[in-house]
Amino acid sequence: AGERSWEEIRKDFPVLDQEVNGRKLIYFDNAATSQKPLSVIEAMTHYYEHDNANVHRGLHELSNRATAGYEGARARLAAYLGAQDEEIIFTRGTTESINLVARAWGEEYLKAGDVVLLTEMEHHSNIVPWQLLAQRRGVKLRFIPVTPEGTLDLSNLDQLLDGVKLFSFVHISNSLGTINPAAELVRRAKAAGATVLVDAAQSAGHLPLDVKELGCDFLALSGHKMCGPTGIGLLYGRREILDAMPPFHGGGEMISTVTFEGSQYKPSPYRFEAGTPAIAEAIGLAAAAEYIDGIGRARIWEHDQLLAREGLAVLSQIPGIRILGPLDQRAGLVAFTLQSAHAHDVVSMADQEGLALRGGHHCTQPLLRKLGVPASSRASFAFYNTIEEIQRMGEILKKVQTFFA
Ligand code: PMP
Q1: Ligand 1 centroid from CA 94, angstroms
Q2: Is 201 in the pocket of ligand 1 (CB under 6 A)?
Q3: Residues 6+ apart with CB under 8 A from 175
Q4: Which of 166, 210, 296, 340 lies most in the core, judged by the most C-beta atoms within 10 Å?
Q5: Mind listing the pLDDT tens digit for each residue in 27-83?
Q6: 205/226 Cα distance (integer angstroms)
Q7: So which residues are the catalytic ones?
Q8: Distance, C-alpha 280 to centroid of its chain
Q9: Does the C-beta of 97 come closer than 6 Å to ligand 1?
Q10: pLDDT tens digit sequence for 234-293
Q11: How far is the C-alpha of 109 from the C-alpha of 54, rounded, in Å?
């Protein structure tokens, strides 16, 4: 037995073994979406080749297998987060999970004048649903400021939390790489009487996460950022909260009885899963959780930190670079600007060298505006990336910088 090497682990990802524009692909857009190991691809193929049927309704063999696969996936994800099965609602991803809370919980429990606290480093998906709720319900939005270094300014947290009904914050920032002190934030918000939602889109596949230890009420994640398929994610909700929450979407599967006059809803999680769910995707996500825990999230996080340090060291040496976010204590993603070139030129020229970066505002427009950055390029790493790839990125970006200077 013994640990598999990172080199061996990398071979689980068939997509990485290819040339792009005549160069060996370097995939550094993992914060946008991660690659998928064979075990995830095979779990989904196996389901379609052998078990495909609709869930929860048939009394036939295939339907029973599909149901077992789907509910087994729920149990696997519950274990991944230290939750109970009934506390896991499958959604299309982080965005839908946050919209679910804003709609179902927000419209039931928030009224005009109530305060929702966010941070200035939120992804658009943790801003816009609350703005929509503000328009519908007159709820007020408040933001924890971000310092020029790219961390949360918590010096006035007690005042900011005063009277807050809901606090929703990002665990790891997708544009700054900042790791927010989630446990402390949850503890202080709960002490102030707030309900707390954690956006774990960028952390769920990278570090150990236990919702009971964290103490949050809701947690949202996307499968596709943790080696799983697109089209699936989840919302964790504390059981007592979900039991008291009205439905989100109406339709089949979420009701116990329907008459023309009205309906009675099933308990959680079914109440929140109207219609035919993403069955193969849930099975794929469970395979992803299994795969990640097979390597070990503590080991992945340690390796992430190594790649982050190397990424920062290599990027710091490029003339005219500005690195966004904190210089220590950060996740394995680094956004930057080059004095000489626009982010889109950086990304296009990198692509010519087989290097996949992201360019733009990374769905955090208000944050970049505040930092005075119109657009940035971003390199985001995963455990299957290598130090050699990071060094190669350094060479490519030096070329880009010289070309445009
Ligand atoms: N929050 C964060 C921090 C993210 O990085 C992302 C994806 N970039 C999202 C939310 C939205 O995730 P999705 O598009 O999968 O719903």
Answers
A1: 6
A2: yes
A3: 121, 324, 325, 335, 361, 362, 363, 364, 367, 368, 376, 378
A4: 166
A5: 999 999 999 999 999 999 999 999 999 998 778 999 999 999 999 999 999 999 999
A6: 4
A7: 363
A8: 20
A9: no
A10: 999 999 999 999 999 999 989 999 999 999 999 999 999 999 999 999 999 999 999 999
A11: 34
**Alpha carbon distance 309, 89 (integer Å):** 36
| Bond prior to 208 in cis (omega within 30° of 0) | no
Q: Which two tokens stand for residue 74?
A: 């729920």
Compute the distance from residue 327 Cα to the ligand 1 centre, in Å: 23
Q: Is 0.90 exceeded by the ipTM?
A: yes
What's the pLDDT at 405?
87
133 φ, ψ (degrees, to nearest 5): -65, -40
State which ligand 1 atom lies nearest to the alpha carbon of 170: 3
Classify the C-alpha dihedral 266-268-273-276 as positive or negative: negative
Q: Is 222 in the pocket of ligand 1 (CB under 6 A)?
A: yes
pLDDT band at 328 (very low <50, low <70, confident <90, very high): confident
Residue 194 Cα to ligand 1 middle (Å): 23
Q: What whole-number distance in Å separates Cα of residue 172 and Cα of residue 126?
A: 13
Euclidean distance between the first and final Cα of the chain, in Å?
52
Whether the CB of 178 sits within 6 Å of ligand 1: no
The CA 227 to ligand 1 mean position distance, Å, reads 14
pLDDT at 56: 86
**Residue 176 pLDDT > 90, yes or no?**
yes
Instruction: Find where tokens 């809803």 sit.
Output: 265
Task: Yes or no: say if 332 and 308 are a contact pair by the CB < 8 Å rule.
Answer: yes
What residues contact 142, with CB distance under 8 A and at least 6 apart?
115, 116, 117, 118, 160, 164
What are the beta bridge partners of residue 359? 377
Q: What is the pLDDT of residue 1?
A: 58
DSSP string spanning 96-113? HHHHHIIIIIIHHH--TT
Beta strands 195-199 and 164-170, pairing class = parallel
